[in-house]
Write a structure and sequence with these properties.
The structure is a single chain. The chain has one domain. Helices cover 77% and strands 0% of the residues. It has helices at 3-28, 36-45, 49-72, 84-108. The chain is globular and about 45 Å long.
Length: 110
């Protein structure tokens, strides 16, 4: 893949991830605190906020691994590969969880 194509794909996904973050904040953020749900999860699970983010991010990681493994490890002709739109959705979700994780780690070190 040439650098120009890669940069265009990267920008598209990063823009889409930012859009999803803005839409989801209305759904998941009861206050002005972007980590409020993770604080609640951390309290329920008696763990730190970064650990709560990591725990919720695992679902997205596993989903992406399954998609890649199903299509590229030992492809089964019966199983249809996931659409590029689904890859975009899952990867954008994962980007957002990585950003939330960084925010939680950064905050924990302050």
């Amino acid at each position: 893949m040439n650098p120009d194509t890669f940069n265009k794909l990267s920008k598209r996904l990063l823009d889409k991830a930012a859009h999803v973050r803005n839409v989801k904040k209305e759904e998941y953020m009861a206050t002005t605190d972007r980590l409020s749900n993770f604080r609640k999860a951390a309290e329920l699970d008696s763990c730190t906020v970064p650990m709560a983010v990591k725990g919720m991010m695992v679902k997205h990681t596993v989903s992406i691994f399954d998609m890649v493994n199903d299509e590229f490890r030992n492809p089964d002709p019966i199983i249809q590969p996931c659409s590029l739109d689904l890859y975009e959705e899952k990867i954008c979700d994962h980007i957002n969880y990585l950003l939330l994780l960084y925010g939680a780690v950064w905050e924990a070190r302050q």
